[in-house]
Fold this protein.
Amino acid sequence: MNNPDIIVVGGGAAGMMAAAKAVEAGARVLLIEKMERCGRKIRITGKGRCNITNLRKWEDFSKHIHPNPSFFKNSFFNFSNIELIEYLYRIGLKTVVERGERVFPESGRASDVADILTDHLINSGVEISLRSKLISVEVENSRIVAISYLKEGRHIQARCKALILTTGGLSYPLTGSDGEGHNIASGIGHKITTCFPSLTALMPENYNRELKGLTVKNCTLSLFENGAPVQEEFGDIEFTNNGLEGPLGFRVSRRAVKAMINGNKISVKIDLKPALESHKLESRVRGELQSQKSGVRISEFLRGYIPLQMINSLCSYIGVEPHSKIDIDRDNIIKRVVEALKNWQIKIVSYTSYERAVVTAGGVSLKEISQKNLRSKIFDNLYFAGEIIDLDGDTGGYNLQIAFSTGALAGESAAQSILNEGN
């Protein structure tokens, strides 16, 4: 495309939505993407199912946005979760709502989301240049006038009236997120806040890999920073080869990783029986032991309370042999069993970095972006959207909604600004 009105750099969720909204508003749009196809990260999100969004209302939705939910408010109300689902339906994607008000494609295939969006862009007149890597941005008189990119060994310069950077963060670099947008933004004067992986696995000290593959449902996970409780979550936790993951592990990971980067000590406490208070659980344990004709092995007794896969780890925490016997007369052992079920404390020593982190926390400083239209406060025709900015969410569909909402606002704003200039 010769002299497009708008160039969008980055063909992820934010970039595709920005391009779609801009072309629908009447602008000529060039979208450049460094990978061989658009939406690489969309295609793997939600374990290949793609949790598109969450249907919670703003009052609840905003509690899952970091570090400044008020910055996101204008983007959300401009293109809300409801409007996103309606938009996707109009372009051919049916969705379903599952537990926790999470929205998925009806087909269960994340690739359908990326493919339908890509087809929509092509049908709408967006020119897509794949395998195209942004090299530099040309600035004149506080305006972006052109970009240079490398495509199949050729250096190409493209002029534009507005530029939208949607290059993502640092997470899952194999999908194309390698921080290039941060480098470009920093190179032209924008501040990049400290970045760190979020929604990632937390590695316990002396981790027992026998736990790998185990999912524990309906438990409570509490996060401690330097011994003080700072966060508590209820739900499911997964033990993987990388440590603690799943909804609970991910929810506390943002704060845990940031604290570890700052040199603070992190630990978690798992309550495996949150529905029972300690004294009631102890009474239940004693009652069951009284019904036993003789002492029962601890490993056999615990089968009634926790998954078999967890027994060795819990016994190690208690400090007893799994095959040792427990009976009503061993008061100390009973109390230790109850304490372990209600208060399993685990020291966290590391975390999985960007290679498997779902999202990047940090990015282009929100102080240098207008929340009204996502335009740079340094360059009046530069816009940002998606994971490149210092805005991220919890697991559960929040991050894709951030991408789609900010992409929509940036695309509409850039197009409207150009159209106003022409009048």
